[in-house]
Design a protein that fits this description.
Layout: H1 2-23, H2 40-49, E1 52-55, H3 60-77, E2 82-83, E3 92-96, H4 102-105, H5 110-116, E4 121-128, E5 131-138, H6 141-156, E6 165-168, E7 174-178, H7 208-220, E8 224-226, H8 239-252, E9 258-262, H9 267-270, H10 282-298, E10 304-307, H11 324-335, E11 341-345, H12 360-365, E12 376-381, E13 405-410, H13 426-433, H14 446-450, E14 461-465, H15 481-492, H16 498-509, H17 514-535, H18 567-570, E15 576-577, H19 594-601, H20 611-614, E16 617-618, H21 629-653, H22 660-692, H23 707-712
Parallel strand pairs: 1-2, 1-3, 3-5, 7-8, 7-14, 8-9, 9-10, 10-11, 11-12, 12-13, 13-14
Antiparallel strand pairs: 4-5, 4-6, 15-16
Helix pairs in contact: 3-6, 10-11, 15-16, 16-17, 17-21, 21-22
Pfam family, one: Glyco_hydro_67N
Family: Belongs to the glycosyl hydrolase 67 family.
InterPro entries: A-glucoronidase_C_sf (IPR037054), GH (IPR017853), Glyco_hydro_67_aGlcAse (IPR011395), Glyco_hydro_67_aGlcAse_N (IPR005154), Glyco_hydro_67_C (IPR011099), Glyco_hydro_67_cat (IPR011100), Hex-like_dom2 (IPR029018)
Length: 721
């Protein structure tokens, strides 16, 4: 009897533990949580304002919208909402297109719908059949799906839905995630596990996670995904893999998500049996046209190619004495008959070491302006070096008025602490988008360059290098989700503020309770500046660890390329520190408009956040704070550490309102981040002190180890390489 009782007790404990794991808050739901509205008054209002749903049509996309409304409203309102064919009472939600819904067609919204285009939508409070209703109308079914997520977001964020008058459409045509995923499922610069794409099980097995991925992107209006790494493998273009690509494309299509592939320039040789990949060779041109036709036979709505060429060892047209336009145009001609596009990356540098790598892309692409086919976009990183914690905007923005320029941001945190550091990147994205190129006078912002309004381009786009992997919470660090979210929201509307996006994400991911929102928003809005402070303050850049880019490495030198070292960029000596990019140095500033040259070229007017990017500055130069450059560096590095400690304190405040699992996850990573911030501060200050010969101000925390200790640290098996 005792044995039986113990057995039953053990079984009960097992069942309870299993139940706990089922209910565990692991971050998988992202921002699409749909938990019941906690404000009793707001809940009562919503229940009155959403009494029934009218959505007609049986297409896969409308079925997804119907399912989303069913699950979302049941969760948020705590009750089932009935479906009807006509509004029968006040509070009906009417959703559809004029083609799919006679009810929507009868509302005669044609003029308003024309203004929102193929992907936009309307959310209107208006009478339908004499009953006050909410109307979600769009020109296409994907527009209805996008509007569905917007409507649910209003409830998730506790907005007033009684008098809706929303007209929303994307400011950019192509809103694309770039996955640097390899066919062996490793992810270059990925810090959230392995690739989502299980090529071994495709095409036969469609993981539920593929659908959840597409759903999350649809909730943001992201409409494209590049499945494979820009350091491309030609095998993905073979029949063996195209059937797998087709299976993913079929799964994504109802969510409005197009598939793109990276094209390895030497594919005609590697998988085609040709002797050359010369883009002007007729046999090569024919090979690519045939290959494109084959791809479209598997994926009729294939988006096109993303290409990295003549960069970091990747083959390209320059191997044959041709230029980037020659290569891009060959591929553009191959996909043009089916409406495909080519996104040709401008991140290039050749085998010859330049006097300043920041000048390379401009030097190669500016002379080619106007020579690209109309279905080519040149994809340009936000800055001229390589996704540093802070860079001035790339000089190519505004410099190629005859060529559509596509923005490339990095969502994965290759240079911002990878998956152990909290760094909300919306302020960084916005900083670049709002930067004024002055190429057509004041107000010629980067945003106007990429959305086509500055130079009258209709082909527009934005790309984000994804931070997504098969970790249960998708992004490694729970707060990494905020960067996926922020990229998607800014891709749809680059005028949104970082603060408003942060508030949305917090409301949808954690709570609308001010006791949670305010501390977490403070964490988000200070996090990127904290990372800049403890890594690369005042315009320092590219001083991270060798190869894996993890941790500090300002001492890196004597590598096979000077421009892959740290000393090449900071140029510290006994006189001062910084890279002189003015007329007395590399003159990279000459690539910018005169107004920008004037501002950045003068020590007195150069923004201090870019000071050491453009100038070699004396250690004793006085800054706006009244401190010398050396002392200011010491304070900035110390401020970064303190900002992380402030984030820890803010996170502690929300413990009573959050689940244990997610709280503990972030708390642990903040502890690691504080340790890594001190590592950066101490290693960099000790190293730069060997040149400055000046003491760290007495009131600041001092390093606890020697410089030799930090220089001998050699982290092994860092992910993402």
């Amino acid at each position: 009897m005792i044995h039986k009782t113990l057995t039953l007790t053990a079984l009960l404990i097992l069942v309870l533990s299993m139940g706990r794991s089922v209910l565990a808050e692991d971050g998988y739901r992202l921002w699409l949580r749909y938990d019941q509205v906690q404000d009793a008054n707001k809940l009562q209002q919503y229940r009155q304002q959403v009494s029934e749903i009218v959505i007609e049509g049986s297409s896969p996309t409308l079925a997804i919208a119907r399912k989303e409304l069913t699950q979302g409203l049941k969760g948020l309102l705590g009750q089932d909402i009935i479906f009807t064919k006509q509004p029968t009472k006040a509070g009906a939600l009417v959703a559809g297109t004029p083609a799919s819904s006679p009810v929507v067609a009868a509302l005669q919204l044609n003029d308003k719908l024309k203004a929102v285009g193929p992907e936009g939508y309307l959310l209107l409070t208006m009478p339908v059949n004499g009953k006050n209703s909410t109307v979600l109308a769009a020109n296409t079914e994907v527009g209805v799906l996008y509007g569905t997520f917007h409507f649910l977001r209003l409830l998730q964020t506790a907005q007033d839905i009684s008098k809706l008058s929303i007209s929303s459409s994307p400011k950019l045509q192509h809103r694309v995630l770039n996955h640097w995923d390899n066919l062996d499922r490793t992810v270059e610069r990925g810090y959230a596990g392995f690739s989502l794409w299980d090529w071994h099980k495709l095409p036969g097995y469609i993981d539920q996670r593929y659908l959840d991925y597409a759903r999350a992107n649809a909730s943001l209006g992201i409409n494209g995904t590049v499945l494979t790494n820009v350091n491309a493998n030609a095998l993905v273009l073979t029949k063996e893999y195209l059937v797998k690509v087709a299976a993913l494309a079929d799964a994504f299509r109802p969510y409005g998500l197009k598939v793109y592939l990276t094209a390895r320039f030497s594919a005609p040789i590697e998988i085609g049996g040709l002797q050359t990949a010369d883009p002007l060779d007729p046999t090569v041109q024919t090979w690519w046209k045939d290959k494109a036709a084959e791809i479209y036979s598997y994926v009729p709505d294939f988006g096109g190619f993303l290409v990295k060429a003549n960069s970091e060892g990747q083959p390209g047209p320059q191997n044959y004495g041709r230029n980037h336009a020659d290569g891009a145009n060959m591929l553009a001609d191959a996909v043009a008959p089916q409406g495909g596009i080519v996104m040709w990356r401008a991140f290039v540098y050749d085998d010859k070491e330049p006097d300043d790598r920041a000048k390379q892309a401009y030097n190669e692409f500016k002379p080619l302006d106007g020579q690209f086919r109309k279905n080519v976009m040149v994809q340009v990183k936000n800055g001229a070096i390589d996704f540093q914690p802070r860079e001035p905007f790339h000089p190519l923005f505004g410099a190629m008025p005859k060529t559509p320029i596509m923005m490339e941001f990095q969502i994965t945190q290759e240079y911002l602490g990878q998956a152990t550091n909290l760094a909300y990147l919306a302020p960084m994205f916005r900083e670049t988008l709002q930067a004024d190129t002055h190429t057509k006078g004041k107000g010629s912002t980067v945003a106007k360059v990429i959305d086509g309004t500055l130079d009258n381009h209709t082909l527009t786009g934005i790309a984000g290098v994804a931070n997504i992997g098969n970790d249960r919470n998708w992004t490694g660090h729970l707060f990494g989700q905020s960067n996926w979210y922020a990229f998607g929201r800014l891709a749809w509307n680059h005028q949104l503020s970082s603060e408003s996006i942060a508030t949305e994400w917090i409301n949808m991911t954690f709570s609308t309770n001010a006791n949670v929102v305010l501390p977490v928003q403070d964490m988000l809005m200070t996090s990127r500046e904290a990372v800049v402070n403890y890594m690369t303050p005042l315009g320092l850049h590219h001083i991270m660890g060798w190869s894996h880019h993890y941790g500090p490495g300002p001492w890196i030198k004597d590598k096979h390329r000077a421009d892959w070292t740290s000393v090449y960029y900071h140029r510290a000596d006994e006189k001062g520190i910084g890279f002189d990019r003015t007329k007395t140095g590399s003159n990279a500033l000459a690539q910018y408009a005169p107004a920008v040259q004037k501002q950045f070229g003068n020590l007195k007017t150069c923004p201090e956040e870019f000071l050491l990017w453009f100038h070699h500055v004396s250690w004793d130069h006085k800054l706006k704070s009244g401190r010398t450059l050396w002392n200011e560096l010491c304070y900035r590095y110390s401020d970064g550490v303190q900002q992380v400690r402030d984030m820890q304190q803010n996170w502690a405040k929300v413990a009573p309102a959050l689940d244990e699992e997610r709280f503990a996850h972030v708390q642990s990573l903040l502890k690691i981040q504080e340790q890594e911030a001190r590592w950066w501060r101490d290693a960099c200050l000790l190293y730069f002190q060997t040149y400055s010969k000046r003491p760290i101000p007495q009131e600041l925390e001092k390093p606890t180890q020697t410089l030799e200790y930090y220089m001998n640290l050699d982290p092994q098996f860092v992910p993402g390489i």
